[in-house]
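Hi support team,

I submitted a single chain yesterday and got back a structure, but I'm not sure I'm reading the token output correctly. Could someone confirm the output below corresponds to the sequence I sent? I've pasted both exactly as they appear in my results page.

Thanks,
R.
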Amino acid sequence: MKHLIAAAVLVVELLLLGCGNLSPKPDPSRFFTLSALPQSEPNAAKRPAASPGISLGVGPVTFPGYLDRQEIVVRMAPNQLILSENDRWAEPLDENFARVLSQNIAILLRAERINAYPWPIDTKPVYQVEIEVLRFETDADQHAQLSTRWVVRNTSRKDAIEYHETRLSRPAQSRSTDASVAALSEALADLSREIAAAIEDMDGRKN
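Hi R., thanks for writing in. Yes, this is the structure output for that exact sequence:
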């Protein structure tokens, strides 16, 4: 009889253990976004308070297909990429990139009239910047890499076009996704400063 009771207890324990294993596991996913420059950016243009600022259209911004995914990508070798198992972008990376770029340029140029591509038919910005992103990820050495080709146009003058190619690198402060995304944000801020300077230079030569 004792053996039967012990066997019954063992069966109940195994059933309870099995039920515990069937309980849902917490989702380990973590979500990240790029960050914009602070409103007090020291390199912002010193425009008069009454100045209407620069009218600018940002976009289109295009990304390579390998970055068109939610998982955060790390380049381990020139021809090898790995996808993070748990760390993801909180929104499509191209949209996040374009939004933060627009915010940065607005801060740097003290511009309020910034439109994201595609803008309304009845809205024609004076300047337009188009960006082709070639690379935007961290590497095995924990450096954020950003490579782009970009064009600035004065939309009222067909001959006022400037072509640029930029390669930027920023070290991450630690071996973590938080630090990597912060370094990517810093690289994007550096690109924003280059674009803002080119627009300001073109604006100064418009006459």
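A quick pointer for reading it: The first strand starts at residue 30 and ends at 32. Let us know if anything else looks off.

Best,
Support desk
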